[in-house]
Amino acid sequence: MAIVWATNNDLEWINEQYKKVDFMPSYLENERIAIVTYKEEYAGLGRILYVNEDEAEIGGIYVLEAFRGISLAYELVDSLVQETKNSNLKEVYCLPFEELRSFYEKFGFKEVDYKHKTINNIIIKKYHWCLDHYDKKVLLLTL
């Protein structure tokens, strides 16, 4: 298992994966995308979307079916969380499906009530898009 950081050469593969699971596409301009490999094959991906110099969102976590059950998602999210901590961001958001709450809590994420806390408008818009777009409940978490 290894984590590699995506380049423009990976963008077509990345967006093919995101299209399969109906996630928003990536563009790399304000993102850092991690690709998890297993036995030198691309096995999954996740991204940090930099909202501004102080805030980011970790998302787009997806492990290909053939590689599930071997803790690759954990390694992937752990790498993304460490990257955000190394960047000294003031706020890191995550918008996972509700059934993934306990998984993200392992990394220190906590649910936030955006009605009682100021949240970046870009994140709020994406959160509402997710609520309208997916049949599953989506959470708004912060690190």
Q: Could you give a short account of the major beta sheet?
A: 7 strands, mixed
Rg calc:
14 Å
- Give the rounded overall mean pLDDT: 94
Number of strands: 7
The CATH superfamily is known as Gcn5-related N-acetyltransferase (GNAT)
Q: What is CATH's topology name?
A: Aminopeptidase
**What's the architecture, going by CATH?**
3-Layer(aba) Sandwich
Number of helices: 4
Strand order, sheet with most strands: 1-2-3-4-5-7-6
Structural commentary:
Helix content is 30%, strand content 27%. It is of the alpha+beta class and 143 residues long. The protein has a single domain, classed as Aminopeptidase, CATH 3.40.630.30. Strands 1-2-3-4-5-7-6 form a seven-stranded mixed sheet, with helices on both faces. Strand 2 and strand 3 (41-50) form a beta hairpin. The radius of gyration is 14 Å and the shape is globular. The model has no long low-confidence stretch (mean pLDDT 94). Pfam families: Acetyltransf_1 (PF00583). One of its GO terms (molecular function) is acyltransferase activity, transferring groups other than amino-acyl groups.
